[in-house]
Amino acid sequence: MQGPEHVSRAGAEPARALARRERWLVVGQHWLLALALLVLLCGEYCRGLETGTGRGWLYLHASRVASAVTLSLVPGLLGLLCASFVSRRGWNAFIAGLAWSLLLLAVYVDTRIYGIFRYHFNGLVWQVLTTPGADEAVHISSAEIGLVLAAAAACVPLLAGAFAWLWRRRALRPAAERPRFFARPRLVWGALLVPLVIAVAGAHAWADLYRDSRVMAFESVFPVYPKLKVKRFATRYLGVKLTERPDVDVDSSSILLDYPKAALALPPDGPRPNIVLVVIDSLRAEMLNAEAMPIVHELARDSRVYTDHLSGGNATRFGIFSMIYGLHGSYWDAILSEHRSPVLVDALVEAGYDMRVLTSASMDFPQFRSTAWARVESAVEDRLPAEQPGGRDDGVASRFDAWLGERADATRPFFAFLVLDAPHQTYSFPSDCAVFRPYMEKIEYTRLGPGLSEQTHLELFNRYRNAVYYSDQITGRILDSLRSHGEFDDTLLMVTGDHGEEFFEHGAWGHTSNFTRTQTHVPLVLRGPGIAAGIDTRATSHLDVPATLLELLGADPARRADWTLGASLLDPPAERLRVISSWDILGMHTPDGILSVPMSGAKGAGITLYTQAWEVVYDDAAVLERYGPQLLGLALECRRFRR
Q1: Which of 115, 242, 490, 597 allows an S-S link to 449, with CB 3.0 to 4.6 Å?
Q2: Contact at 8 Å (CB) between 272 and 531?
Q3: Which whole-number Å values give the CA distances from 8 to 76, 161, 164, 231, 511, in the listed order?
Q4: 162 shares a domain with 307
């Protein structure tokens, strides 16, 4: 039996074998076809974006094509290589179908990540996939994974079939017959695609040179595309005079630390209250109300409540880091590489405190065992199992109660750091805490993104509120344990969140994607010896927590700058610009908006100004000039504890 290559056009003429150059032609035609699909798929990155100007729109969509072209190089060149050595249609079709399907799968997954979280596959995502315990941060159902993989598998025969059809079509035509324009890959690449890629790179270079935010605002929309930076070359060799703008080199390199500048010793005759920090994951400030958190809301009546309190980070890593160290997240890598214990922990250990860390989440991701708890790792109990179906943090409350009862010396002061993880995605709670209805029974990531319907948004938000309500009930059990063991009145108690949680108010879901108040504004309730009850509306930060606690124990406020960048919650500065950390960017909150400041080595066009709704401010020169001294101060803060 003869193969498909020998099927005739009209039943009489057999199909001929293809020479190498013709095989390349088929690969090129299939490349263009798959590239068109890729351009359409990359349109998902543009959903919900406002371009603002005509040149912004042109740059965005030209970059969309350029990104698709860049992404297509691997499967396209692989196809050409295969066609150079393999003459059989079947093998070429299979390899083309598989390679392009894998690329489309990868891009689709990345569009979902970007659509929900507003960043691409990066170090965070990689750590979630590879770090033990990191899988607890994101819970994707096997059904969703299976559906996506099934769709990718279905693409293989479709794309392979398209390749086989192009091959057969070429085999039935005379070798000397030239295809039409759009079926001639070399012509399409030479006349359209390569010039477009060069134009995009040139537009990026021009915008970077003159700091055109109307263009540079979109440079991070796509995962990869040609970017060209020529500032150094243009200023050095072409004599280009750049408009002066404030800039700041925020160091994040892991060089030798000089932390602390001087050791902190608490006075031996100072007060020694117990300290209990209850940190509720992903807790938005507005959740502190009688409906979502009735127990903590009642506790707040006799406590000091901070209504303008920002976390030091938009992720657990940097929120807790800032709370324990009193430092910006730019110090994270250096602290981790040197396994440097925080001054707060060192001082408490030296003062004889009994230390305990309890959480249902992992302390391996982020790497708090090697940072915050490096000196007291034996006191860390994580991954505590839940006791109720659907619950998550029941075990934390039970273990805390048991620990209070089993302490060898009940007169010894203690420090307890309790993390309640339930309000983190995917928002866990038992059935008896489902007080907000209707709620989403199960989160399906493939359904979420910009343009979410009001009903779906309500169900998602209610699921989150139920998880918050559950955490409030667990907090109530913790308070009951303190009371039953006679420790409540002699305990400095703090209830707060590690960061906030966004529900597409500014284009994203969750956290880690921007520095808006939805992702950074958290409640803070503080009560205990030396704390006056009341409402404090002054600007405070997680960076203020270590100084507050240690100065209540007798630490000298005059030596505060030796070991922290924070202030005291009991006497915060009248005016301050608070800083929030992310993976490679710092966000500075100002009255004029949020300044996004890249750390050294971070990708980006420099400092960008956003509104509080996370919209780019294009005419930002006056604002950047106004905050030049504060930006310089930020750079100095990021170097204070480095040698």
Answers
A1: 115
A2: no
A3: 29, 18, 15, 60, 60
A4: no
Which residue range(s) make up the domain with 137? 4-237
Domain presence at residue 411: yes
- Phi, psi at 463, each rounded to 5°: -60, -45
How many CB atoms lie under 10 A from the CB of residue 432?
11
In one-letter notation, the amino acid at residue 614 is W
Q: What is the pLDDT of residue 6?
A: 46
Same domain, residue pair 442 and 310: yes
Same domain for 214 and 79: yes
Question: Which residues contact residue 329 at a Cβ distance below 8 angstroms, ignoring those fewer than 6 apart?
Answer: 312, 313, 317, 318, 321, 322, 581, 582, 586
Q: What average pLDDT does this structure show over 141-164?
A: 86
Calculate the CA dihedral of residues 591, 592, 598, 604 and round it to 10 degrees. Answer: 160
Find out whether 353 and 344 touch, Cβ atoms under 8 Å: no
DSSP secondary structure letter of residue 169: H
Digit-coded pLDDT (tens) for 560-618: 999 999 999 999 998 899 999 998 899 999 999 999 998 864 444 578 899 999 998 98
Chain-centroid distance of CA 417 in Å reads: 24
Q: What's the CATH code of the domain at 406?
A: 3.40.720.10
Check whether residue 286 and residue 232 sit in a common domain. Answer: no
**Structural domain contains residue 440:** yes
- What tokens appear for 513 in the block? 């994607």
Enclosing H/E stretch for 310:
strand 309-310
Which of 237, 266, 294 is a domain's end point?
237
Dmax (CA) of the chain: 105
pLDDT, averaged across the chain: 88
Residue where one domain finishes, among candidates 237, 265, 288: 237
Pairing of strands 585-590, 579-581: antiparallel
Residues 499 and 435 in one domain: yes
On whether both 320 and 216 belong to a single domain, the answer is: no
Q: Tell how far CA 530 is from the center of its chain.
A: 37
Is 54 domain-assigned? yes
Residue 11 has pLDDT above 70, yes or no: no
Query: Looking at the domain assignment, is residue 258 inside a domain?
Result: no
CA torsion sign for 173, 178, 183, 184 is positive
Count up the domains in the chain and report the number.
2
What does the block give as tokens for 320?
A: 């807790």
Q: Between helices 89-117 and 54-85, what is the axis angle to 10°?
A: 150
pLDDT greater than 70 at residue 241: no
Q: Which regions of 464-603 does DSSP assign to beta strands (E)?
A: 491-497, 502-503, 509-510, 524-527, 534-536, 540-541, 579-581, 585-590, 593-598
Residues 205 and 290 in one domain: no
**How much is the pLDDT for 215?**
76
Nearest to 86, CA basis, from 17, 39, 148, 144: 17
Kindly give the pairing relationship between strand 491-497 and strand 274-280. Answer: parallel
